[in-house]
């Protein structure tokens, strides 16, 4: 009671303080108090007196927009020359300096952002052909200021004077084109866009087009001294292996499905090869993606890059985004604002082509924002092909140069701008106009939400500016899109700007500084010889892989399965993840859900550990909000690894008894614990005519796709220790073919090799005798699975390397070209599995893989991967399981196979 009296006294004291100050009327807190009608509280009075001031500020802002902003936009849109922007630059520079206090008034903050945007874009436009680029000059000055301690200022002036003889080519490859900036010192020679649609995607052809541009400008090829390359959101890795982060369907993509090459780097390589024949010799300096920072990537993250294809870049490399626009704009704004870069906070969102990347500078730190993935999802979810269909139904003629006609899901911001252009044309119905506006508004709303999320944080860390950057910043329809985005951002005291990303300009400035102004302590990656060997090898892989028939790829399988689900030909599946505190497995399940492959998701394990793993992995699973995602808990009081494993197995057992319609997936649970329960789904069938059928035999099948597009199926690395008789071995072969045949061409010859230590039968190695007997009975399988051949015993090298087959004078039907491998014991299969999935990846060879357990036609697959496998491998395994479940034969064919397989089926171990 005494404590309550203390609280009442404190509250009364606060009331007295507020009412005695005159800020609030006593009647606010006491409804029975007499109303003091003659007394207006000070706070209310101040607000009322300030209202006219706010209205006046709004009028001032509107006046400046009418008097300055609108006329400048008219100047910008009338095809002016670079010289026209010189007086405008001077005017805007003075206006920006005189308006620096606008950032303190909420009504003037947007106006200040617009003035800064106009000034920077005018600076950009003034650096046209034949003119010095003020942008490059300012960025170099900023770099010199930031690196003042390590720079030799005595040599700086001489270095600056020497730049006038350096002709530099900056190359950035985007999704639809290669963008080029050529400079002589600070002077701009030309800017150009080389579209893939017109010139193809071959690096050699693109490099040749760049040389043609120089010749058209009257510039001697022998005078070119420097090449600098950007492009691709990941850029260069320390050992020169490149990853293309754009899904460009062209010849290199077709040959290297699981990952590809940074096209900008390949073009730079080919351009250098062409220029070397012009008498320059080795005198051409080159910088490959040098402005991209990898300082925050740990060993595991770098290693994982070798295993990822473009889907994985969109799925799990959420934070590793391009920082070049951030660095360029931070340098420029800190120069204009005269702010120490160490005290400058900036948030930049880049909207170009498919990827929307977000990066943030907080003082000296650069943060790669995970929010970028949310913007990507918005683009990926738009099916522009349907929009094209709507337009054609109304007989709207889409201009042939519009990118909408590409009809690809998840294209880019260019298509959004084209939709805005169509809306303003007035040539579509009101209903379609509303639908198109909904698409644009949804995109603008999502981008605004991402920016608000990324800008959050402590007041001291909030951005001084938010910038939406794009190579389309000068496009009037992109400006309209920017206005829609800004209207939806609730950040009243932060100027929001629309700017070119200035990537080329930063690449040139950084290259010139590191190569000529500060060479003693420059970036070692600037020496092209470090990259030359790996670039050459990459080109050899690209050329040697050829254009033959693609056998199999997980990328194509995803397209087919997700397309069938969208068309209603296929149903989503339910999945239960046992040991759901595994981050890679959670991310794989999350990605499968995002692609629309899954219906219900059950997560078995400790609830707290599962939620922590979801948070760490950034998986888009919301068990507390999404009714389709459910946590099946074990007792949270259980401690110790062994005890938790046992508890998960028990909970999983009970779950299976009630829910047989779920595909089983392994998470952090150990394999024996999972299989002991999971294999119970392959129960014996009911007796037929009093004859009890033999027990179904389960086995593991993994698929691997190598960098050159070759694929292998491998069994059995997980279930059966060995095979006691040929029936068991043939059953495992049958299980493997049941997985492989539905996902490859029906005309594809499947070549099954039974792998042993040697290729000759010998009683000293009993498995060779088993393999030979399996070969003799292979006709039983050939009748069921189409074109195929089975041979054994074969050594691994003979089965997979044509040169070895020739050297050993082997004359079988398999001459080093096997695509289905079956080992005779688990030791051999498991070693091969980890060799292909782990060792090759650690050597920089990009291998795609996935694996499931099956037990014959019509059985539900079990997704079994190693706990050390990547999220991509686990995702591929989900995809393979769903494809296997959905591509079962017709009932008649299944009955035929079941009858045949009874002949070869043996009992499981």
- Name given to the CATH homologous superfamily of the domain at 134-306 and 505-544: ATPase, nucleotide binding domain
User: In percent terms, what proportion of residues is strand?
Assistant: 5-15%
End-to-end separation in angstroms reads 74 Å
CATH architecture of the domain at 134-306 and 505-544: 2-Layer Sandwich
The biggest sheet amounts to: 11 strands, mixed
The strand line-up of the biggest sheet is: 15-14-13-16-23-22-17-18-21-19-20
Query: Could you say which overall geometry the principal axes of the C-alpha atoms support?
Result: globular
Structural Rg: 33 Å
Organism: Desulfomonile tiedjei (strain ATCC 49306 / DSM 6799 / DCB-1)
Domain Phosphate acetyl/butaryl transferase: 572-881
Protein name: Phosphotransacetylase
Pfam family, one: PTA_PTB
């Amino acid at each position: 009671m005494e404590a309550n009296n203390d609280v009442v006294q404190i509250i009364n004291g606060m009331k007295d303080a507020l009412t005695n100050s005159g800020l609030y009327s006593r009647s606010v807190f006491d409804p029975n108090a007499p109303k003091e009608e003659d007394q207006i509280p000070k706070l209310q009075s101040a607000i009322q007196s300030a209202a006219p001031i706010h209205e006046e500020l709004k009028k001032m802002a509107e006046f400046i927009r009418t008097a300055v902003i609108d006329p400048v936009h008219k100047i910008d849109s009338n095809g002016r020359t670079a010289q026209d922007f010189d007086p405008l630059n001077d005017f805007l520079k003075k206006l920006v300096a005189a308006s620096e206090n606008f950032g303190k008034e909420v009504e003037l903050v947007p106006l200040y952002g617009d003035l800064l945007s106009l000034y920077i874009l005018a600076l950009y436009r003034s650096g046209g052909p034949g003119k010095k680029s003020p942008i490059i000059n300012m960025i170099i000055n900023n770099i010199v200021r930031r690196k003042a301690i390590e720079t030799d200022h005595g040599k700086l002036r001489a270095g600056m004077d020497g730049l006038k003889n350096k002709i530099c080519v900056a190359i950035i490859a985007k999704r639809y084109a290669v963008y080029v900036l050529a400079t002589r010192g600070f002077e701009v020679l030309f800017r150009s866009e080389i579209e893939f649609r017109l010139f193809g995607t071959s690096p050699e052809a693109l490099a040749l087009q760049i040389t043609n541009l120089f010749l058209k400008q009257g510039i001697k090829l022998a005078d070119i001294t420097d090449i600098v390359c950007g492009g691709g959101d990941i850029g260069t890795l320390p050992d020169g292996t490149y990853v293309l982060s754009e899904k460009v369907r062209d010849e290199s993509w077709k040959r290297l499905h699981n990952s590809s090459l940074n096209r900008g780097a390949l073009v730079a390589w080919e351009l250098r090869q062409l220029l070397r024949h012009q008498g320059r010799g080795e005198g051409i300096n080159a910088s490959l993606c040098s402005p991209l920072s990898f300082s925050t990537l740990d060993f595991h993250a770098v290693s994982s890059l070798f295993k990822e294809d473009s889907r994985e870049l969109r799925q799990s490399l959420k934070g590793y985004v391009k920082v070049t626009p951030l660095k360029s704009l931070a340098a420029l704004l800190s120069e204009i604002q005269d702010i120490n870069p160490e005290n400058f906070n900036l948030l930049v969102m880049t909207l170009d082509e498919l990827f929307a990347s977000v990066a943030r500078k907080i003082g000296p730190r650069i943060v790669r924002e995970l929010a970028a993935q949310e913007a990507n999802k918005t683009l990926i979810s738009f099916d522009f092909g349907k929009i094209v269909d709507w337009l054609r139904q109304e007989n709207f003629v889409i201009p042939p140069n519009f990118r909408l006609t590409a009809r690809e899901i998840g294209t880019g911001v260019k298509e959004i701008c084209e939709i805005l252009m169509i809306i303003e044309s007035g040539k579509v119905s009101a209903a379609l106009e509303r639908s198109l506006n909904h698409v644009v508004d949804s995109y603008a709303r999502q981008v605004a939400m991402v920016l608000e999320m990324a800008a959050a944080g402590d007041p001291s860390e909030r951005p001084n500016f938010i910038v939406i950057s794009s190579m389309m910043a000068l496009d009037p329809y992109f400006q309209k899109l920017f206005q829609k985005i800004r209207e939806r951002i609730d950040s009243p005291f932060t100027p929001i700007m629309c700017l070119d990303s200035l990537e080329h300009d930063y690449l040139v400035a950084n290259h010139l500084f590191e190569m000529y102004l500060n060479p003693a302590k420059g970036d070692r990656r600037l020496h092209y010889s470090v990259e030359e060997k790996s670039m050459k090898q990459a080109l050899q892989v690209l050329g040697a892989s050829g254009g033959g028939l693609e056998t199999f790829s997980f990328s194509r399988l995803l397209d087919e399965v997700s397309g069938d689900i969208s068309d209603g030909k296929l149903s989503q599946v339910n999945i239960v993840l046992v040991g759901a505190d595994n981050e890679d497995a959670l991310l794989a399940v999350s990605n499968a859900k995002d692609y629309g492959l899954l219906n219900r998701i059950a997560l078995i394990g400790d609830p707290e550990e599962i939620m922590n793993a979801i948070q760490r992995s950034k998986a888009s699973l919301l068990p507390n909000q999404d009714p389709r995602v459910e946590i099946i808990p074990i007792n949270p009081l259980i401690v110790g690894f062994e005890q938790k494993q046992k508890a998960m197995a028990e909970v999983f057992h009970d779950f299976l008894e009630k829910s047989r319609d779920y595909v089983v997936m392994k998470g952090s649970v150990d394999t024996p614990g999972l299989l002991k329960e999971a294999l119970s789904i392959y129960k014996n069938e009911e007796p037929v005519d009093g004859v009890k059928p033999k027990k179904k035999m389960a086995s593991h099948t993994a698929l691997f796709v190598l960098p050159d597009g070759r694929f292998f199926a491998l069994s059995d690395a997980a279930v059966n220790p060995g095979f006691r008789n040929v029936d068991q071995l043939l059953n495992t072969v049958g299980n493997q073919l049941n997985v492989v045949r539905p996902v490859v061409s029906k005309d594809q010859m499947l070549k099954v090799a039974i792998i042993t230590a040697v290729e000759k039968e010998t009683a000293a190695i009993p498995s060779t005798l088993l393999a030979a007997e399996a070969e003799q009975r292979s006709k039983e399988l050939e009748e069921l699975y189409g074109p195929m051949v089975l041979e054994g015993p074969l050594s691994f090298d003979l089965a997979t390397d044509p040169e070895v087959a020739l050297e050993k004078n082997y004359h079988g039907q398999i001459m080093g070209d096997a695509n289905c491998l079956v080992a005779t014991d688990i030791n051999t299969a498991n070693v091969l599995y980890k060799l292909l999935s782990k060792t090759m990846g650690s050597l920089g060879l990009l291998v795609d893989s996935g694996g499931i357990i099956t037990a014959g036609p019509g059985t539900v697959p079990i997704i079994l991967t190693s706990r050390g496998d990547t999220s991509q491998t686990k995702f591929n395994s989900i995809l393979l399981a769903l494809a296997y479940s959905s591509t079962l034969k017709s009932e008649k064919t299944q009955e035929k196979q079941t009858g045949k397989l009874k002949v070869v089926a043996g009992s499981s171990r």
